[in-house]
Amino acid sequence: MQTEIMLALQASLVKDYSKENQLKQIDMLRMMLEINQDAVVHGISKLEDYQNDITIFPMLCRGLKLVRNGMEPQVIESILLNTALANDVDLLESLIVIDGVISIQMLRSPDVTRELLLSYFSFNLQDNLRKGLQDLKLNSTEPLDMKEIEKLINGQSS
Prior knowledge:
- This protein is mainly α.
- It has one domain (3-153).
- It is built from eight helices and no strands.
- The chain has helices at 3-12, 19-42, 58-68, 73-86, 91-105, 110-118, 123-132, 146-153.
- It is globular.
- It starts with a helix and ends in a 5-residue tail after the last helix.
- 28% of the residues are buried.
- The mean pLDDT is 84.
């Protein structure tokens, strides 16, 4: 996200540091990672399956609708920024939604999206969130070890 946009959001939006708000944002982050995983595996059309599940996050709902409609990333970012400002959306939620929606649209690896979105939390909270997100079966971007490479070469499935 561009520096100018970050500064505009920082200066203009509500900053709610309550535990309740942070838990809400963590729930949204988890949902976005699941959506990202499905989009990478099954394609952007899979986003329609989440229409009813994300109504509690109106900005996310709007962003995913824009992705389904095939809008360009810059247009989506601009619309979501304007939406956040016009509706006085929480700063953390705005940042997570904007970056998460663009990641989903670009079909980034869920591991990359996870790291990008976790960067909005403190280091201590990031570590706890990583542990809490381990149950999500995200596609791994780690290199294969020698045994996995040998299996692939020999035509064996894992």
